[in-house]
Design a protein that fits this description.
By secondary structure, the chain is an alpha+beta fold. The chain has 7 helices and 11 strands. It has one domain.
Length: 229
């Protein structure tokens, strides 16, 4: 079975060592492809396991020189076992981004916390029930869905914890002020992505495939990165 990006060409090469498949890191491939974009954000939107194949789906936010923002979502893409395992806790999280200075960061953080949320160009903080949460202006309303804010509002105290806690601009992952405010284990993602959890529960191959020794899995040698607690 072949998995591919709808707008990126990824090549799966066959290695010489024991017939192992070389699986390029798709996030690294996308970063190379989007090098001319002023800014971008890559979010882990979905995961799946089919037989011995490990799959990711990504949401992409891109910004051009004129400041126009476009969003898109990939098909399921074949990923390396180790990369899959390293990101099991990062569903709904931003896992890579480039800012307008050209700096690329690879850290698992709540989507949009580094560039869009808290930036008065794109929205403002609103009060309700004693809490401040982020609301995008109308022309940027599509980011609400892409960043998953429909099932987990971006609260001011969480953003403050990220910005002033030494996470902003670093390679440190941030899951909120508590251990599971964001990511796969959060109540918000469980509520917002029920199809993922029901699919995973039905998939008897998931636990068996992901518990095998990593040395027996197909490997993406070199250039990889991953995030996790």
């Amino acid at each position: 079975m072949k998995y591919f990006l709808s707008f990126f060409s990824l090549f799966f090469l066959i290695g010489c060592n024991g017939g192992d498949h070389y699986i390029p890191n798709p996030v690294d491939q996308m970063i190379k492809t989007m090098k001319k974009d002023v800014a971008f954000t890559i979010i882990l939107d979905d995961m799946d396991v089919k037989d011995d194949d490990f799959l990711h789906k990504y949401s992409i936010v891109k910004e051009d020189k004129a400041g126009s923002i476009t969003t898109s979502i990939t098909d399921f893409i074949l990923v390396d076992y180790n990369f899959f395992k390293q990101n099991e806790n990062n569903l709904g999280m931003q896992i890579a981004a480039k800012d307008s200075t050209g700096k690329i960061t690879k850290a698992a953080i709540p989507a949009g916390f580094d560039r869009y949320i808290g930036n008065s160009k794109y929205g403002s903080w609103n009060q309700s029930g004693g809490q401040s949460f982020w609301v995008f202006y109308g022309q940027y309303a599509m980011l609400r869905s892409v960043f998953g804010l429909g099932y987990h509002p971006a609260y001011y105290n969480m953003h403050r914890g990220y910005y002033y806690g030494g996470y902003y601009g670093s390679s440190r992952s941030y899951y909120g002020n508590g251990p599971n405010n964001y990511g796969t284990k959060s109540a918000a993602v469980r509520k917002g992505k029920p199809n993922f959890f029901s699919r995973k529960a039905r998939n008897t191959n998931w636990k068996k495939s992901t518990s095998r020794n990593s040395s027996s899995r197909r490997s993406g040698r070199g250039g990889g990165f991953g995030f996790g607690k």
